[in-house]
Write a structure and sequence with these properties.
Layout lengths: L2 H17 L3 E5 L5 H7 L8 E6 L3 H8 L3 H7 L4 H13 L5 E7 L14 E7 L5 E7 L4 H21 L3
Parallel strand pairs: 1-2, 1-3
Antiparallel strand pairs: 3-4, 4-5
């Protein structure tokens, strides 16, 4: 397991295990990296339920139920799309919590409106809780993806640390 994610996944494992709750991931630009860092941890089957790698728009639609109209109107890298991704991950799994990531890792694919390094996140949890956030990361493809994974974990850990 990458050293930089060891503390985050240890804390996530401890909190989800304490709550007897499960996590699902829905990933596009990170290509399963988030699921990998979670499952690199021994015992992750006790708190990690499944990961959806939905790199293409067709996969987002077929596996997560993202609407074609959402993709056409807002694009794959948008608040609307990641909110549908996280909702789909929750409804199509047994997880209590879900994370969704879609972005432009580069080196190509960016635009003036959505430059390389633009990443949208969504988190969902019990009681219908949802949060969406955009980030702009610097660096090469690997750096953008690494920062996206770290951010996804960090925000979920912040939410899990709040009083129930």
């Amino acid at each position: 397991m990458a050293v930089e994610f060891a503390q985050q996944t240890a804390a996530l494992a401890a909190e989800l295990s304490r709550r007897n709750q499960l996590l699902a991931t829905a990933e596009s630009c990170t290509g399963g990296w988030l699921a990998k860092v979670c499952t690199d941890r021994a015992g992750s089957s006790g708190w990690f339920e499944r990961g959806f790698v939905t790199y293409s728009n067709a996969a987002k639609q077929e596996l997560l139920g993202v609407e074609a109209e959402t993709l056409a109107r807002h694009g794959a890298v948008s608040r609307e799309t990641v909110l549908e991704m996280v909702a789909g991950a929750l409804s199509r799994s047994h997880a209590h919590w879900a994370l969704a990531i879609s972005g432009i890792a580069g080196p190509g694919g960016g635009s003036a409106e959505k430059p390389v390094g633009t990443v949208w996140f969504a988190w969902g949890g019990p009681g219908g809780w949802q949060l969406a956030r955009e980030a702009r990361f610097e660096g090469d493809r690997d750096a953008v993806r690494r920062q996206a994974v770290a951010t996804a974990l960090e925000v979920l850990l912040q939410r899990l640390s709040e009083p129930v």
